[in-house]
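Exercise 7.
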Amino acid sequence: MPSLISTLDEQFLAVDRSSRKLLEKLTGESLFASPRKTTSTIDLLSCGECIVRSAAMVEQTFGGITTRLWDDPFEWTLPEKLATIAGVAEYLDEVEATRQKGFELLTTDDDLNREFPAPVKMTSLFELLTQTLARANHYQGRAFAVFQMMTGEKPPRL
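Solution. The predicted structure, written as tokens, is:
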């Protein structure tokens, strides 16, 4: 039976791979194109914004785990750097490197039970990682929905 650590690692890898697959289907013009406006109160983000926010959830958590800094990645990420597909892909590379450093600190499933000083309160590492996966998947799902709404195509599958 696979360990919880390896299962979580695979889940985070799946988020990264899915974001990259979607990024491959976008053009420079469609990356940050605004979806059609609706009368609802929901703010529709572009595919690019949702991909970046999904990655930012991972970056914030693993930045916190590795350096104990829980800053919001949007506080230091320059919008100009993420204005192109290549810039977003480079950002995904940076996030993946940070995530790998975080997983290197986990040696056994018992490590997941450790209480950790997360941004708001002490939280088990397992709870923190599962919450991060949920938030990252949420934004990624929004990216897929916007992609489908704007192109009429189905989002990529792995």
